[in-house]
Amino acid sequence: MNHQFLYKKLKSENYYQINKNVISLKRFSILLSLFSNHTLNSKIVCFMKRTFSTITFVITTTCCSIAQKTFVHPGILQNKEDFEHLYQVVQKQIQPAYSSYLLLRDNPRASANYTMNGPFETISRDGEFSYTKPKFEADLSAAYLNSIMWMVTKDESHARKSLDILDAYALKLRTIPPTNDAPLLAGLEGFKVVYATEVLRYTYKGISSQQLARITKMITGIFQPVLDTFYHVPAYTNGNWGGIVTKTYMAMAIFLNNEAMYKKAIDFYYNGRDNGTIRNYIDGDTGQIQESGRDQGHCQLGLGALATICEIAYHQGDDLYSALDNRLLKGFEYVARYNLGDDDVPFRKWKDMSGRYNNWPVISSIGRGKFQPVYFMPYHHFVLRKGLSMPYTKMVIEKMGVEDFDRDQPAFGTFLFSGK
After folding, report:
1. Could you tell me the pTM of the whole model?
2. What is the pLDDT of residue 67?
């Protein structure tokens, strides 16, 4: 074959471009065969080497476009097998997961007798309607937690409570105003709404088609547009925002059976021009976090969001955990190590994607040692599933004990992520 022809063919057909919807695997295999069996000139070899890692990524993430993806339901963090395992944990009181379950059971928001604060026509974290913040946060946490309690106890009163809250908000809620924190609200609270609705839709016969339609309309008409707006503007936030938005966008994609949305979420995780991607939030050499110079609470918030994205994708058959040589593991180990008291962690002044957060000269001690319940989920994957080592994360887990509630995280990880 003419070497110049092959080089032009590679350039013109753009097999490696991520924005392609379909990869011709047949043609690509032919090119690989040619690459293996012909002596190519250095120009082609360099070109192939330069694009090989991207080609590998494209095969992994987009070859499923040849056949429409079939989503697992329920499939946001837990599937039916996971829930059956959790039910058995409760019935047999299997430790230490059962102790984490008891914290869930005793949380007032997880009670089937929870009394709603709302619903409200307008909800906001800041601005004129900020007075609604603690009220709707508690309500939507109750919907989330009661949906879990329904699955792990099979007590229908929890399913009814979760549905009552979701439907009440679907009937009343009209807007999330475009304040500064709107993307955080839509991400943090929208996740609870989508998770609970996904669970009820596929497991609870008491949800009517009218109720499901109303709640779905709230998800797509009120929460989703805020997330879409975030994606459409240039990077302007610290990285925890991008992770929070994307975990909910991916959950919505699964709930809506929307393959394009799902691929968009994965593409953002790898390639988004934002601080909240796996590449831009965690340093590949040291594990330093984009927000390490800000405070430790936001570092854990951002890492928890990225881990949630990975766990959701894992339940849909996609391994995002291993991205960039297990970079998420490195980030958790860095944060765990510093928060355990090690002052020798490396730190460099960070140049972020927005250009707004470049002036933190040292690692921040604000919030140091205040651990959030985000560690067991990645530990469960990297260590218990994959057999890797996370010594500092293990020490944090031992220091914290079983995981409890957190308003902004899936939480109760010792229980919820105790299965396969």
Report:
1. 0.85
2. 66
